[in-house]
Amino acid sequence: MIAEKNKKNTFNIKNFLIDNNTYLIFLFLFILSSFLSKNFFTVMNLRNIALQQAAPVFVAVGMLFVVLTGGIDLSVGSMMALGASLSAILTANLNVNIILSICITLIVGVILASFTGFLVAYANMQGFVASLAIMTIARGIAFVITNATPTRFPENTVQYLVSKSYGYPIIILTIFLIILFWFIQKYTAYGRLVIAVGSNSTAVNLAGVNVKKYIISVYALSGLLSSIAGIFVASRSATGSPTIGQGQELDAIAACVIGGASLAGGKGSVVKTLTGALVLALIRNIMNLLAVPSYPQDIIKGIIIILAVLLQTTTDSRKTDV
């Protein structure tokens, strides 16, 4: 009896480590960063991380919902550029009210991203191919409407999003987003059905659920959040540029995978995806504080991502064996 009880306790500890490895990776990097640089664990630096990660978190959450259905969205970086550029052009060049400019921008982002979902759901195109095409189109539109020139927002517009006087609304909105989509995924029929579509779309379809509608909706959601993220990035420099968001699709996918999401669909967590995005942020931040040149940073980040994903794969296989 005593031996069985001890074995049971060991089993529980093992499962705890497996289930929370994403958080443990983050905790390890956070502690390591605190030791590596005296400037890391300061209010200013942590606030800067929060401001910088608002946009990547929005993109990563949108990507997660696409990944949960077994899809992929490579257009998120270009949608960020389009969101930043279009809102800047409408506000600065056409004198449209900033709120209306943002609304128009978000509508355009949703329509364009929904077309990606339509290609996947009704034209039976792979998400990789469909979003690759929209990635090119969206970035091209951003360059055309700006004439490849960054456009500065008028004073007292998007700058409020990063204003200390207003309590950094960009951070507040990001916290709200995490809580909202955590609730949607965990407690709503929509969240459960998105996961079900990724797990077994045939069974869901036979149950009478319109799978195609859900596929379109997750791409539309990704486009919406990516457009918002583009505006967030633009708010920090008060400039909309067609080059915003380059490579962001890779970071978003990495955040999902580090967070334990399966690219085959049906598995993933909003909170763990957030943690995955923060892991990438810590890596980037500590290397900047240590004055590591940008190119070696990419190499180091890539190696750490590989190790993190290998850890996820290993622990998942062990959990299955258990």
What does this 3D model show about the protein?
The protein has helices at residues 2-19, 21-36, 43-68, 76-93, 98-121, 127-146, 169-187, 189-206, 211-237, 248-258, 270-289, 294-321; strands spanning 151-152, 239-240. The protein is mostly helical and 322 residues long. The protein has a domain at 38-245 and 262-268. Helix 4 (76-93) packs across helix 9 (211-237) and helix 5 packs antiparallel against helix 9.
Write a concise synopsis of the structure shown.
The protein has 322 residues and is mostly helical. It is built from 12 helices and 2 strands, in the order H-H-H-H-H-H-E-H-H-H-E-H-H-H. The chain has helices spanning 2-19, 21-36, 43-68, 76-93, 98-121, 127-146, 169-187, 189-206, 211-237, 248-258, 270-289, 294-321, and strands at residues 151-152, 239-240.
Which structural class fits the helix and strand makeup? mainly alpha
- Please tally the helical runs, counting DSSP H or I stretches of 4 or more residues: 12
Radius of gyration: 21 Å
Could you name the ranges where pLDDT drops below 50 across 5 or more consecutive residues?
A: none
Helix content: over 70%
Overall pLDDT: 90
Number of strands: 2
| Distance separating the two termini | 20 Å
The rough form would be described as globular
